Amino acid sequence: MSGKKENMSDLYEGLLREKAKIRQLQEELNSRFRTLAGPNLDRMIHSREFTETCLQHGDSNERCAAICLMVDHWNAPREFDNRLIDMATQDISPEVRAVAARCLGTRNKKNDDRQVGTFLARITINSEEHLAVREAAYRALFLIAAIPIEKWPPLLDFCFPEQIEWNVLNRFLPAEERH
Fold it and tell me: If DSSP codes are grouped into helix, strand and coil, which group holds residue 178?
């Protein structure tokens, strides 16, 4: 019986260590987000209206933070997708366009939305678009298509666009645009 007790104790200690690592990662992410959002973060967290005004802020980092907060904190209504589509194509900053594309995937995960999927697929194949935006749009398609995470492209050592899974893109592209 003492062998089982030791195993349970080891398992418990391991879980506590993993919990501490997760807590540390959360703190690091919060710190990075605070840096990204700048001095307006507290106001954005407490006011949806203020967060919406920050979507037009002159600082691209503030716009990125505002997009993330509208999606993840304020759970913006479905109509916000239209705003994300506009920002993913029209914002001057490629970082903002990439965040908007990624958030479209987050908001539409597992719903196989053809309209949003086609929009993101077209960004992905647009050779005139910034590479970071194209890759964000591509990765968002995996969320929309409900593809298991183990089949996603690797975060490191992924050569975009050379290693694109065309079957994922073609799923959303009209027949005349497929590769």
Answer: coil
